[in-house]
Design goal:
2 domains, elongated
Length: 183
């Protein structure tokens, strides 16, 4: 379209109301500035990194939590010694570790599914709720066995999940009530 055609389209759109008017009100690229795209958020590598960071942290947390679950299912005795700091475990204790493994694997898969669907707010909420698990594991083990280096696994997992929850819950732009109701 030439510039006069764009101007006619803009004026016709201004005469109408609603979303159609806003969609056609754009005048086109500004060749004088060298702009060839619709105006939007800040462009460039730094802006792209800011938009991608919450998702990267979320995916890293989902993969880490799921990997904990797989490790406890695959080798509960080895994982118990290295991560929990417990000595040889009994058959009853193996059941508790299996429950922990399923919890971790489930949370990792749920968060990954929500991130894959680009539902960052729900994934952030899942991490916020799920962070209670490793926190409470750390508290219980501290009360039972005292402070041990292996507690770093629990507190580290809780910190990673909390960081992922915060970054996912605060990412993106805030919508006004009218924008939410327009959906």
């Amino acid at each position: 379209m030439t510039t006069p055609e764009l101007e006619r389209a803009r004026r016709a759109a201004m005469a109408t109301s609603g979303a159609a008017a806003r969609a056609y009100a754009w005048r086109g690229p500004d060749k004088a500035r060298g702009d060839d795209a619709r105006p939007g958020p800040a462009r460039g590598l730094a802006a792209a990194a800011r938009r991608a960071a919450p998702n990267v942290i979320g995916w890293a947390a989902a993969a880490t939590v799921a990997a904990f679950g797989v490790a406890y299912l695959a080798g509960p005795t080895r994982a118990s010694r290295s991560a929990f700091g417990l000595p040889a475990i009994t058959r009853t204790e193996r059941g508790f570790l299996a429950a922990k493994a399923v919890r971790d694997l489930g949370l990792g898969l749920i968060a990954a599914t929500l991130l894959w669907r680009r539902d960052t707010k729900a994934a952030g909420a899942a991490f916020a709720i799920g962070a209670a698990g490793p926190m409470l594991d750390g508290v219980v083990l501290t009360l039972i066995r005292g402070l041990r280096p292996q507690l770093g696994v629990h507190w580290g997992a809780a910190a990673l999940m909390t960081l992922a929850a915060r970054s996912l819950l605060t990412s993106g732009t805030r919508q006004t009530a009218s924008a939410r109701s327009a959906r």
